[in-house]
Write a structure and sequence with these properties.
By secondary structure, this protein is an alpha+beta fold. Helix content is 45%, strand content 16%. The chain folds into two domains: 45 residues, 2-Layer Sandwich (Beta Polymerase, domain 2); 34 residues. It has three helices and three strands; from the N terminus they run H-E-E-E-H-H. InterPro entries: MTPAP-like_central, NT_sf.
Length: 98
């Protein structure tokens, strides 16, 4: 199966669960499924076979282990970016790793 087919199938499966705002973004440079958990209000992006995302996540984890304040700072910056609507890479703004 192609990444796009996997993303579409995943979006269909997630529609059956207790999730909201499920969107399959298949034309993005890296196809993703966007969703939101209504219980926590947390948004999530899921991609398939994106090794760079795995490496970036490990890098952020390592940074957070060096200084616990980094995690708090990252959440503050993400909240700031979301409140100013500059947190959508596909619209030419900041990525979540920025």
């Amino acid at each position: 199966m192609s990444k796009v087919d996997i993303i579409l199938k995943l979006a269909d499966i997630l529609q059956a669960g207790n999730l909201q705002n499920i969107q399959a973004l298949t034309r993005a440079r890296v196809p993703i499924v966007k969703l939101m958990d209504p219980d926590t209000g947390l948004s999530c992006d899921i991609c398939v076979n994106n090794l760079l995302a795995v490496v970036n996540t490990k890098l952020l984890r390592d940074y957070a282990q060096i200084d616990q304040r980094l995690r708090q700072l990252a959440f503050i910056v993400k909240h700031w970016a979301k409140s100013r609507r500059v947190n959508e890479t596909y619209q030419g703004t900041l990525s979540s790793y920025s």
